[in-house]
Design brief:
heterodimer, A: alpha/beta, FAD/NAD(P)-binding domain, Enolase-like, domain 1, 3 domains, 29% strand, B: alpha+beta, Alpha-Beta Plaits, 5 helices
C-alpha cells in the first residue's frame, strides 16, 4: 500500500519539473502535486553553476524560482530522497526512505547524470564533474588554493567551465576527443572562431586527444598530473570531467517503459505506458526537423517539454512541436548561437550558405526551400526571427541574402505570417 | 491582456515611436537632453520595420506562450500571471541571449548599454501609459487591453 498518493507525482526538481508544475497550476489549483528529488536544493538553474563557481552569480541568484515557489504552488516536496523504482502496474514509486508513493499521473524528469568514463584515477581528490550545484560548490572551495586545471571535454559545459576557470585566474587546458570544440553544435569554421577566443584568453586547447589517467601524489592521493593520449603528462591540481550526460534511465529499469538512449516519449510527452510522462534531459522527444525522436539536453526544451507534459497531465491536449536544438551561449563576450542542422555540410538535400568576416560568422542551412539550421557568431542580428522562421517552416527562397546579412525583418515574411504575428496572441506555439 | 498592436495600414514610418521609446528609456527621460552628444546611451525597445512604402512598428507581443520566458536560463524573464506582462529582471540576466534566440518576432534584443542584459518592451510601466502609443501621430500604434 502506498503511504501517500498524488494526482501528479514528479521525479526531479529542475527545469522540466518547474515547467510541468507551472502548466498544471495554470489549469487548476486543487490537484495534489508531489516532487521527489535526490538533490536537497531548491530548484536551481543548471547552466548557472559555472557562473556561480567563478563568482559572477551569487548563490541566491542561482535559484531558478523564488524560495517560496513550492509553497505558493502548493507542492509537497520530498528533497534529498531518491526514487528507487517505479511500478507501472500499481502506479507507485518506491523511495530511498522505504516509503511508497502512489500516483495518478507520473512525470519522469530526473535529468541526466554526468558520464564518468573508466579512466584510472577519476575518483581522486581534485577531479570534479560539473553537473550539480554541489559539484560547483565543492570545486569552488577546492580551487581557492589551486592554480592549474584541465577540462576534459569541450562541449558547452566544458567550455563554460573553462571560461569560469579563466575568470578565477586559473591556468586552463582543455582536452577534447573530437577534432574540434563544440563538435555537436558547431561546424568547423564556427568551432575555430570559438577556439581562437579561448586561445586568446590563455587557454590551451588540445583536440583529438583523450585522457588516459589521472595521476596522484602517493602520500595524499590528490591529483598531480593528467596523462593524455599524445603521450604527454600535464601537471595540474584540478580536473573537470565534462564529456556529456546520460539520461538516468535506470529509474525505469524493470518496467515496460520503452527507452532508447533516453526514455521515449510521443508528441504529448507520454511514454508507452499509460499515465507516465517524461521530459527534460531524461527524455528522448520528438524533433520536428529530423521527424523522429532524439536527445536534445538543453534548458529551453526541458522547460517546454515539461510544460507540454504538465498540460497533458491536466487533461489539455498539447503537442510538443518545438523540440529542435537551439543554443545560445556567450564566451568571453562573443555570442555564439546555433539551431537545427547547424553543423550540416552542403550536400544531399541541404543547401548551405555562409558569410565570414573576422569573428562574425553566419551560416544558413536550407532544405526544400526552408530554413532548417543556422549558426551565428558575433553578428547575431535577426537570430530570434530566424528561429521563428525555422520553427514555423516558412519558405525562405529569395531571403537568403537578408538572412546572411542579418538585416531580416518580420516585414520580409509572407503577409499572412506578418498579420498573424501582429494580431495573434502568441498562443499557438504550444 | 495588455499589449501594443501595430496598424500597418496607417503607419507612415516616421519613427517617432523609436524616438519616444528611447526618451522613456534614457536616464533623463527628457527629449531635449536624451539625444545630446554627451548624453548616456539609450535604447529603443520598438523596431520600425520598413519595406518599400510599407511600414509598421513592432515590439514584444507579451505572448500567451512566451518562448523567451521558457528559454530563460536564469529565471530573469517572467510573465506576470495576472497582467500577462513579460518582463526581465536585469539584475538576474547573465547575457546568454537565449531569449533573443527564442523570440520568434525578434522583439528581445541585447542591451547595447550593458552587454549583460536584454531589452524589450516593458509597456512603459514606470510612466503609466506607453509613450510610443501616445506619441504616434497617426494612430498606427494602439494599446490593446482585452481579456
Amino acid at each position: 500500500m502506498a503511504n501517500y498518493r498524488f494526482d501528479h507525482l514528479i521525479i526531479g526538481n529542475s527545469t522540466a519539473a518547474i515547467g510541468a508544475i507551472e502548466a498544471i497550476r495554470s489549469r487548476d489549483l486543487a490537484s495534489s502535486i508531489g516532487i521527489v528529488a535526490a538533490e536537497t536544493e531548491h530548484a536551481y538553474s543548471r547552466p548557472l553553476i559555472t557562473y556561480y563557481m567563478c563568482g559572477k552569480v551569487a548563490e541566491n541568484n542561482v535559484f531558478y524560482r523564488p524560495a517560496d515557489f513550492y509553497k505558493e504552488a502548493n507542492v509537497k516536496c520530498m528533497l534529498g530522497v531518491k526514487a528507487e523504482s517505479v511500478s507501472t502496474q500499481d502506479q507507485t514509486v518506491s523511495l530511498s526512505t522505504g516509503e511508497m508513493i502512489g500516483y495518478d499521473k507520473l512525470l519522469l524528469a530526473a535529468g541526466g547524470a554526468p558520464i564518468a568514463p573508466p579512466i584510472p584515477g577519476i575518483e581522486r581528490p581534485g577531479v570534479f564533474f560539473m553537473n550539480t550545484l554541489e559539484d560547483a560548490r565543492r570545486a569552488k572551495g577546492w580551487l581557492s588554493h589551486m592554480k592549474r586545471a584541465v577540462v576534459v571535454g569541450a562541449g558547452l559545459t566544458g567550455l563554460k567551465t573553462a571560461e569560469a576557470l579563466v575568470e578565477m585566474g586559473q591556468e586552463v587546458m582543455v582536452v577534447e576527443l573530437a577534432d574540434r570544440v563544440l563538435a555537436t553544435t558547431l561546424d568547423r569554421v564556427a568551432s575555430k572562431i570559438v577556439r581562437r577566443v579561448f586561445i586568446d584568453h590563455g587557454v590551451d586547447v588540445i583536440t583529438e586527444a583523450q585522457v588516459l589517467s589521472f595521476n596522484g601524489y602517493e602520500e595524499s592521493n590528490d591529483l598531480w598530473t593528467v596523462t593524455i593520449s599524445t603521450g604527454e603528462s600535464i601537471a595540474c591540481d584540478t580536473a573537470f570531467v565534462t564529456i556529456g550526460i546520460r539520461p538516468r534511465t535506470e529509474l525505469v529499469r524493470d518496467t515496460p517503459i520503452k527507452t532508447a538512449i533516453g526514455i521515449l516519449v510521443d508528441r504529448h510527452m507520454r511514454t508507452n505506458v499509460e499515465n507516465v510522462y517524461a521530459a527534460g534531459d531524461i527524455a528522448e522527444a520528438y524533433d520536428p526537423l529530423i521527424g523522429g525522436t532524439r536527445l536534445v539536453p538543453i534548458l529551453p526544451n526541458a522547460y517546454i517539454g515539461g510544460r507540454v507534459a504538465g498540460l497533458n497531465m491536466s487533461g489539455v491536449n498539447a503537442e510538443y512541436n518545438l523540440g529542435m536544438s537551439v543554443n545560445s551561449v556567450n564566451f568571453f563576450g562573443l555570442p555564439v548561437m546555433s539551431a537545427g542542422f547547424a553543423a550540416q555540410e552542403e550536400g544531399d538535400d541541404f543547401r548551405v550558405l555562409t558569410r565570414l568576416d573576422g569573428s562574425n560568422y553566419r551560416k544558413i542551412v536550407i532544405r526544400d526551400g526552408k530554413l532548417v539550421g543556422f549558426i551565428l557568431t558575433g553578428n547575431i542580428n535577426g537570430a530570434g526571427l530566424m528561429t521563428g522562421i525555422m520553427r514555423a517552416g516558412i519558405e525562405v527562397t529569395g531571403l537568403e541574402e537578408r538572412l546572411l546579412n542579418g538585416n531580416i525583418g518580420l516585414i520580409d515574411l509572407p503577409r499572412d505570417v506578418v498579420r498573424e504575428r501582429i494580431h495573434g496572441t502568441g498562443r499557438n506555439w504550444i | 491582456m495588455v499589449r501594443i498592436r501595430a496598424v500597418p495600414e496607417v503607419c507612415i514610418g516616421c519613427g517617432l515611436c523609436r524616438v519616444w521609446c528611447k526618451v522613456e528609456h534614457s536616464e533623463s527621460k527628457n527629449i531635449y537632453k536624451a539625444f545630446k552628444p554627451n548624453a548616456p546611451e539609450t535604447v529603443s525597445c520598438v523596431e520600425l520595420e520598413e519595406a518599400g512604402c510599407e511600414s509598421f512598428a513592432l515590439q514584444c507581443r507579451h505572448c500567451e506562450e512566451p518562448l523567451c520566458v521558457y528559454g530563460c536560463i536564469t529565471g530573469a524573464m517572467t510573465k506576470d500571471p495576472t497582467t500577462g506582462i513579460v518582463s526581465v529582471d536585469r539584475s538576474r540576466c547573465v547575457g546568454c541571449w537565449t531569449c533573443v534566440l527564442m523570440c520568434p518576432n525578434g522583439a528581445v534584443k541585447p542591451d547595447t548599454r550593458h552587454g549583460r542584459a536584454v531589452t524589450k518592451c516593458d509597456l512603459c510601466r514606470e510612466r503609466g501609459f506607453p509613450s510610443c502609443v501616445e506619441h504616434c501621430p497617426n494612430d498606427a500604434l494602439i494599446l490593446e487591453d482585452a481579456e
